[in-house]
Amino acid sequence: MNSSSVAIITFLLLFIKCSSRPLYPLPSNDEKTKMPLQTFRPFNVAHRGSNGELPEETGPSYLRAIEEGTDFIETDILASKDGVLMCHHDVILDDTTDVLDHKEFLDRKRTYEVERANMTGLFIFDFTLEELKTLRAKQRYSFRDQQYNGKFPIITFEEYIQIAVNASRVVGIYPEIKSPVLMNQHVKWPKGKRFEDVFVEILKKYGYKGSYRSKEWLKKPCFIQSFAPSSLLHIHNKTDLPKIFLIDDVDVRTQDTNQTYQEITSDHYFNFIKEYVVGIGPWKDTIVPVKDNYIQKPTDLIARAHAHNLQVHPYTFRNENQFLHFNFCEDPYMEYDYWINTMEVDGLFTDFTGSLHRYQEWTSPRSAEERDANRLLQKISSMIVKFEFPIRT
Fold first, then answer.
1. Using a CB cutoff of 8 Å and minimum separation of 24, what contacts does 235-240 make?
2. Which branch of life, at top level (predicted)?
């Protein structure tokens, strides 16, 4: 082998070694050394954490999602009796905590009007932070792993933020202003502040700011989401963080403005709301209707949203057969392929963030930087094959 061949091969091996990188860097508190958020493929949003594996909206659920490769950890924000913002999806505690095992709390059962219908249960805003911290989370679905029931506490909004901030790479947060009408009715804050005001103040406290994909935003990515358009309008001038308008089923009216699905998905409304939000988050079965568990012809919702320069982040993707439509042959990767490559969504809410991450790692186009490196490797390889390697005798 001549010296030129040796030099080129040595360079190639060094280049490959330097170009390869672990999935995640070593832990570091220095933001400058953290692996940045990927922005070249649809966002992987860990819906209530990795809640297909662990009880939803708990610290371990969020840590697992980060370990599995999520881009954003998602949560629902409600309030305690004493005004502390908490991570919990349901306004009642009955289904996802062990509150019913606490006899001292059973007299707290109440009936309130929630989104124009009566609901009975143990409501989160009837408990102080100290009382909520005595409860332990449990898995929502009986067909999921039950071994972690009763082990993890409910966490606060600030504890959730700290999980993202302390991650070894840049991990975004995706908090929802949950049931704001109900929260403002039952919880009072000093100086006439609203639920939404306290929500934004906490984000500012931890340095979350900046418009979508700005330098500030990329350091600490955050989408604010809500089903309540009036809340998104209320915070419009309080923070420049990007906002997502969530859209419920076709027969559900908005909780605050009492608007129909047809109204809020019209071109007229998109033209209005795009001044306040960067995208929409619809339930996926409203984008592609389902009949007898088979998906039907897609609506034009995504195309029209994109025409208004609105992103589309549908919810919720789940691995279990009872959630997969027959078209996908009980294969979640087929479902991801359909929504990413055929429907061309911009982000996906999933209960199984590890599955989505693995699918994207295997199938997604590389970033521009990685493509350039790959092209250079190919050129070097073509140069090497031009040399003749003498056969030793």
1. 235/177, 235/196, 235/197, 235/199, 235/200, 236/276, 238/196, 238/197, 238/200, 239/200, 239/203, 239/204, 239/208, 239/209, 240/209, 240/210, 240/211
2. Eukaryota
**252: CB partners within 8 A, 6+ apart:** 261
Structure tokens at 219: 């350091």
Residue pair 68/353 in contact (Cβ under 8 Å)? The answer is: yes
Q: What is the DSSP string of 137-173?
A: B--S-TTS--TTTTSSB--BHHHHHHHHHTSSB--EE
Tokens in use for 181? 């009408």
Specify the 3-state DSSP secondary structure of 31. Answer: helix
Residue 225, H or E segment: strand 224-226
What mean pLDDT, rounded, does the chain reach? 90
CA–CA gap between residue 74 and residue 87 (Å, rounded): 10
Reduce the DSSP state of residue 120 to 3 states and report it. Answer: strand
Summarised one tens digit per residue, pLDDT across range 151-200 is 999 999 999 999 999 999 999 999 999 999 999 999 999 999 999 999 99
Model pLDDT for residues 296-330, shown as the tens digit of each residue: 999 999 999 999 999 999 999 999 999 999 999 99
Residues of the chain with pLDDT under 50: 4-28, 385, 387-393
d(CA 213, CA 221): 8
